[in-house]
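ok trying this again, last paste got cut off
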Amino acid sequence: MRLPRLTGSVLSGLHCFLIAADQMSFTRAAEMLCLTQSAVSHKIKNLEAALGVKLFIRQPRKLVLTDEGKRLKEVVAHNFGDIANELRDLKTLELSGELNVSVPPTFAQRWLMPRLKGFIDKYPALRFHLRTRNELVDFQTESFDCAIYFGDGKYNGLHVVRLMDECMVPVCSHEYALAHDLYGNPHKLVSCMLLHDAAPWARAGRNDEWQYWAQQNGVILPEAGCTFDRADLALQAAERGIGVAIGRASFIAEQIASGRLVTPFPLSVPSPQHYYLVCRKDMAASPRIKAFIDWLVENQ
């Protein structure tokens, strides 16, 4: 068996030969390779000519490997397997190491954590480190690779990718809605206890979410209220009948489905804030960050 130059046609012929030798059929090999049977036969003949040996004995209705064909099949199968493994390793090499991410607490708990297993399963060589905070990251002094912000998207000097939108709607327990006659009566909020996320986004005032919703719907709000430094705490207080909270759609789906929270009037408004992934501009092409962004977009 002479050694040919490993041209593209020879490599293509070796791949075709391996499939045909596994299937022992040019017809089935053609189906797997999306070729015609004559194209497969032609590739095998060219490979035999390049090697100077017969690889198959063509008998009526079946193929038989020659001794040379058996030897070549063993070598090619072994080496093609090594190539496939090496390509896999090269692909995952870029997605190994560590990914340090800062995320708002309620977004982490209500949206990210129920989905995170999918990302970790997809990139098992990547060590994912999650930290929660409402404050913005100082990428010059802190060791975060990227962060998710809920805000206006104006983050000077950073690479910014808009991820998803949000909408807001008042929520409370069913019992609280009945006790305060809220169903269909948004004007009766004036006699309710409002539950505020005191830090819905960076540099926000503690009443900003409620005030924005009220302005969009022409509703007068009461003075009485409780504030919390995390949206999930305000939502938990609403579940327990303390008052009415602003619920973001991405946070409340499970509670609404289970009946733990209700929307006494369907006056949802698009939030003026959105979710963004941000990172340093020199990290924008990082395969780890790009993989995380793609996964976030796929799982919206």
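PB: full thing came through this time. The chain has a mean pLDDT of 88.
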